[in-house]
Sequence to fold (641 residues):
Amino acid sequence: MQISQTEAEQYERIPTKVFPTSDEAVRVVAAAISHLVRERQQQGRTLVLGLATGSTPVKLYRELIRLHREEGLSFRNVVTFNLDEYCGLPPRHPESYRHFMEVQLFQEVDIPAENVHVPDGMIARSEVFEYCRKYEERIREAGGIDLQVLGIGRTGHIGFNEPGSAVDSRTRMVTLDRLTRRDAARDFRGEANVPEYAITMGVGTILEAREIALLAWGESKAAILRAAIEGLQTDTVPASFLQRHSNCQCFIDETAAGELTRFRLPWKVGPVYWEPPVIRKAVVSVAGELKKPVLRLRDEDYTENGLSPLLVETGSAYSLNIRIFNELQHTITGWPGGKPNADDSNRPVPAEPPRKRVIVFGPEPLDAELGMAGTLHRLVRHQHEVTFTYLTSGNLGVPDNEARMAISLLNELSVNRLGDIAGKERLAELAKEMENKAPFDEDSVKLRQFKGLIRKAEARASCQVLGLDLSKVLFLDLPFYEKGRYRQFATSEQDIASIRGLCERIQPHQIYVTGSGADPSSVAGICFRLVSSALEASGKEAWMGACQVWLYASSERPWYPHEIDMAVPLSPAELAVKLDCLYHHRSQRSQTPFLKTQSGESWQQAEHSNRTTAEHYDHLGLPEYEAIESFRRMKEVERRR
Ligand code: GLP
Fold:
């Protein structure tokens, strides 16, 4: 793959290509792989690929499968070595990386079984050292890795080389980091089930590959990518060691690139076109850097921070400060549905009509509550007609223990009180399944439906805290989710039609959605694309002409004030209501309280995120609130009309 860097990329110590979406990025990487495979075929040689697991490479593997099916790309001359494997998981375990690779790639292409290598997680502890040495020997015998595909963990790990891994580390057994185990908890239905150890190629092993392609998508990777790409090489961010490799490139999407200097502080890397959002970003970032309120910034503060061109463009600091201060102030509103009978020329939401029809889309139960429970509460109190729509039931996220508890409770009721034989039989069937199934066996359709009921009950209870009318709390149960599994979802027109049907029936004045910055293969990422497609399809409808589409922030990372178009403040009492609402999603609370850290729980993250946004506004010299929920206007969706 060709490597060249531009002026804008001067801070990047690993050459990085940024693509509008992950789809475009994987097409480029898959085409490069396909080119290498064919080149070697012509030479009668094998190609040795180093492969990764996780959500990130799923799309790449799908594209390779497509090239195999539609463009005749053969993998007969490909040899693969996987980076890592969990210890203690047999190959057929649904969460083992061997199983992942079989399902996501190997089964679907013509690669000979003897050509694939995944570390064996079942190797006895006493034999691990020797086994790892042999794994490396096999790589060398195969001629060394030609191209290594990598993802990156939020700890900065590559493979399972957690912080602290040495630059010359080799294939070995490692202990997994707390954050890594928490990130894997969802797949394993609870953190307690995530293995504690793994076997991984070392950093040194990875660096021996002739070429390396690191892939990353979504805003959750933005901060660690910045550290890996622009920071100093350090073993606290093992991916930063990739800076040493002369033929390593990052292929990332725009949301993952958000923290790189060329996007965060574009004026530092070259001339910029001073559009209003860039100006706002520049002022907010100088104020943040100097810890000064906007109205106290002086000309020197701008010039000393590389922003003389901005002053030339806009005049003095004085007028610039006032302008941006006003803009920021106008994002704040306690009236997310518009303030009736008030001048709305500087408000994010129009006053008319005074009573709006609103649809709030939640990917899985809890997502929308985390992002906007306080705002939902306000919309309800201000008498807007709110339809809260859960796009999926979330049954995949219910730990077995929760289902066991619910079955036993219902069983008690039906046996001792209701005498409902039919119900009892159904419950007995579920109880039997729970008894016989190993922790990671696929749930039957009935058990999934049952787990879905648990989440729906929790969701309804949390909606009641917000005062929502339960007849307007809908569950779309989108087919992609009901029929799928994490990382194996396939969407269809049916999903879009279902969302579109709802929008056309309600003809909303406001739509709230999330997930634009989420990993595209996550439920939130998929739901975002489905809602966008549905709105695009409805683009010409008259109601869309008057509809504002709002994106609410996930608790993944608080948005900076310059990224926010509407900031809805929460009083201490309103924040308490929000936390009460979140607390009703009990199946989503940590299953391992003795391991839990202060900020580990999703409701804690949401609280932290909302408080941080309030602090940001306060530091800029705006009013000091307890907490703030943030929203961005989705003009790109509205503009399609
Ligand atoms: C996993 C794997 C890594 C992977 C990383 C990121 O634990 N061991 O190889 O790159 O974590 O995972 P994801 O792509 O799901 O974000």
